[in-house]
Amino acid sequence: ASQQGENALRQQIQRCNEQREQYRITIQNLTTDKQALQRKCLQIERELFQLRERFDALSQNRNNEALCDSCRKYFPCNCSSVNNMNRSNSNADKRIRPPVPMPRYSKESPSDRELRNEVEGLREEVSTLRDTLNEQINLFTDERKRWEEERIKILKFNNSSPNRNAALLNDFTPNVEGICTRKEDLKVLADSKSCLVSCDRLI
């Protein structure tokens, strides 16, 4: 029984070592994926920043061209203040523009729409990459916790196995003594039978 238990423990330890090697490979792969995703996120954020600068420049040019000639003649000194207000508000919110006296906005050009769509697509891609990375990290954390619990159980079982073997040996010793006692009883019984036979012959 002790030999079978020892073999079972060795097989379990071997399986745990194999799982640990698989987890180590998984950790390396996840680390590589994480670094690649971080580089891609940085690249996307850099491109997003460049697109925002281009969009701000186009918005500023469009606001400068929004005033007609009569408005520029009527408000000659307020053009710079209006542009400064537009620039400060564009940093806070790209979609809200301050009111301009006598504005005449032109229609949104296709290039502006393309830039806005590209910016939105990049934002969605960045959020998707971050969600994927967080899911992989959570999955790896759960696997590592489960493997740690199994390792602790195996260590506890290994620590308690010598005590179990000693208990098994103690339980087995009285049985041996009982067998020896039974052999002695059989011997005495055989001796008594031989004495009876000898007495019959004498009679």
TrEMBL record:
Region Disordered, annotated ranges: 86-116
Keyword Coiled coil applies: yes
Coiled coil ranges: 6-61
Keywords on record: Coiled coil
Composition skew (Basic and acidic residues), residue ranges: 105-116
Superkingdom: Eukaryota
Protein name as catalogued: Caspase recruitment domain-containing protein 11
